[in-house]
Write a structure and sequence with these properties.
Structural class: mainly alpha
Number of helices: 1
Helix content: 40-55%
Number of strands: 0
Distance between the termini: 37 Å
Strand content: under 5%
Radius of gyration: 15 Å
Order of helices and strands: H
């Protein structure tokens, strides 16, 4: 038996799903910019 657990999420196409997707894109863009500058990216808001 596996010692790890996973939770399956159903993709949400509603307003909340789009909000989370846009926040994710913003954070990933910020992380890429920080890596290019040689800094460590900040995780989270």
């Amino acid at each position: 038996m596996s010692k790890t657990a996973s939770i399956g999420f159903v993709p949400s196409n509603g307003l909340f799903g789009r909000l989370i997707a846009s926040i994710d894109r913003l954070l990933m863009t910020s992380a890429r910019t920080s890596i290019r500058s040689g800094d460590l990216p900040y995780f989270g808001l």
